[in-house]
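mind reviewing both lines:
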Amino acid sequence: FISSNCRDIEILNLNNCYLFTHELLEHYTSAYTISLTPFMAFILEVSHGYTDNGTGIPFINDFIFHVTWFTYVDLLCLENNMQCHICSLAPDNVIFDGVSILFSHKQLCSSIKPLTAISPHLE
């Protein structure tokens, strides 16, 4: 369950149990796309910050962070991010930096094909 009632204040409400700021989730997105920071490394970094600040409240575990971050990414509105000043809103081809869209093997599904795969529609 994801509640959108906190979206206007940039908080993701996960199952009415966990609240995450968009700032934290964007921080991981930035770290991941710049240096391929693994989830556990990021979680440990944030956990050390919690410990250093003496909050007494531990940061969440890796499973919860996985679920939260992938939920956050699913909610992002990326429709207009593929604009081209020549092709307009929907270019025929979009080339991504392979590093920024790389995910763990566990995240793959049967519908995802390697970038070098040739579509049967193009043959």
